[in-house]
Amino acid sequence: MRCVRCGSEAFERFRGKIYCRECLIIKYDGAVESSVRRYRMIKNGERVLAAVSGGKDSIAMLSALKSLSKKLNFELSALFIDLGIGEYSRKSGDTARTLCREYGIDLHIVKIADHGFTMSDVSGKICSVCGNVKRYLMNRFAREKGFDSIATGHCGEDILSNFFKNLYSGNIQWSEKQKPRLEGYDRMVARIRPLYEMSERENMLYVLAKDLPFVEDECPHAPSTTWKELVYEIERKVPGFRVSVLRNLARKKKIDKEEYRYCRICGEITTSDVCQFCRNVAKYSRDQ
Ligand code: AMP
Ligand code: ZN
Q: pTM to 2 decimals?
């Protein structure tokens, strides 16, 4: 089989057509660019901090943003959060370092160990503690260093499977935040999701086509994939479901402004007296 665009040797199918490696890369970059433009995700001259975990999605994001940074005129730096999950964190950090060195991108590293604990000290709902720690550290770091937005590698299936999970547990407000760009307010830095309309498979094809380094191992604490499998199942039965729901979510206006205050301990934004991060520190830190 041959690439429909240039006739070279075929690599893979992307959005219904067969492409060679080079043309698949062009098509993928074009798709990311059109969703960045469609949702006005990145403003002219912005300083973007890409949160890179070393997995295929955030590696694909970093690479695609690198290709777009000149054309769309934004500055790009990267952040890796060392969660202290043994060999997994070591490999992930090395991967982020390798790609950033190759691209000449500044890589910042924040260690959760500097707060007196690592993920290995956490008991119970490790993924929710980890999610909280990552969001907190990304925001604080980005704000303190003057970044305008934080880019994460969340792809369509991540957003939809979280949507169902939260709907199931009654957290309806959650869906209000599933935007391709969430504006910053007060001490919160804007959040962007350049891969909002890309799928996991497309991200994988892109990193393979570009031969990018990425960590294949799943985090040893990764949650069950049940909700994601459901998203795939629905997409199989209703082709176009994923993109259609994502576009509707992006359009939905925020109903109430969330009430917030400042954490009594660290001063970051929270809805209670002491923020979840400081409660995690109090519970797990060995320095206390
Ligand atoms: P996850 O929360 O693991 O689903 O990851 C979602 C996104 O958060 C990734 O695509 C990255 O952009 C970011 N992220 C996850 N883990 C890390 C990490 N250790 N360091 C920096 N960014 C991360
Ligand atoms: Zn081609």
A: 0.91
Q: How far apart are CA 3 and CA 9, in angstroms?
A: 6
What are the sequence ranges of the domains in the chain? 41-215+222-259
Ligand 1 atom nearest to CA at 92: 19
User: For residue 170, what are its two tokens?
Assistant: 């009654």
Q: Identify which ligand lies nearest to the alpha carbon of 27.
A: 2
Which atom belonging to ligand 1 lies closest to the Cα atom of 153?
10
Quick: pLDDT tens for 213-235: 999 987 777 777 888 899 999 99
CATH topology of domain 41-215+222-259: Rossmann fold (3.40.50)
Give residue 267's region: left, alpha or beta (phi > 0; psi -120 to 50).
left
Question: How many angstroms separate the CA atoms of 117 and 133, rounded?
Answer: 11
**In this structure, how many other beta carbons lie within 10 angstroms of the beta carbon of residue 70?**
9
